[in-house]
Amino acid sequence: MKLSKSLFIILLIAVFASIKGYSDVGKLKDTFEIEVNEKGYVPSKIEIPSGLKKIKINFLRTTDKTCAREVILEEQNINKKLPLNKKVSISFDTSGSKELIFGCHMEKMFSGKIITVSK
């Protein structure tokens, strides 16, 4: 059976794509960056794959013009101050969580979500 040159190239690309996908298994993104500015927590929504058990979020507060001077995750018993222009990292277990809400001390005037999605 003879393959045309274009079909051969398509098959070759498919093989390399599948090898690339295979090599990325187990390398799920587990660290996220959030800036705390005049708009609040940016981004305010983080989607994580359902297979991820633990994540790390680096918060950087870049303004003094909001009440978002800490981050509270009640479900994880986390309440961390966010000093101006200093990165604060938090790590926690996400297994069993579908959605986690984080926010400031003012009844979450500024808030965000960590959502577990199937990928």
Summarize, please.
The protein has one helix spanning 5-23; strands at 31-37, 40-42, 45-49, 54-61, 70-73, 78-81, 87-93, 99-103, 111-117. With 119 residues, the protein is α/β, with parallel strands linked by helices.
Protein model, in words:
By secondary structure, this protein is α/β, with parallel strands linked by helices. It has one domain (31-117): Cupredoxins -  blue copper proteins (Immunoglobulin-like). The protein is 16% helix and 42% strand. The chain contains one helix and nine strands; from the N terminus they run αβββββββββ. The chain is elongated, with a radius of gyration of 20 Å. The two termini are 38 Å apart.
What count of structural domains? 1
Q: Sheet with the most strands?
A: 4 strands, mixed
Say how many strands there are: 9
| Superfamily (CATH H level) name | Cupredoxins -  blue copper proteins
Q: Count the helices. How many?
A: 1
Q: Write down the CATH class.
A: Mainly Beta
Secondary structure: helix percent = 10-25%
Chain-wise SSE layout:
Layout: H1 5-23, E1 31-37, E2 40-42, E3 45-49, E4 54-61, E5 70-73, E6 78-81, E7 87-93, E8 99-103, E9 111-117
Parallel strand pairs: 1-4, 3-9
Antiparallel strand pairs: 1-2, 4-7, 5-6, 8-9
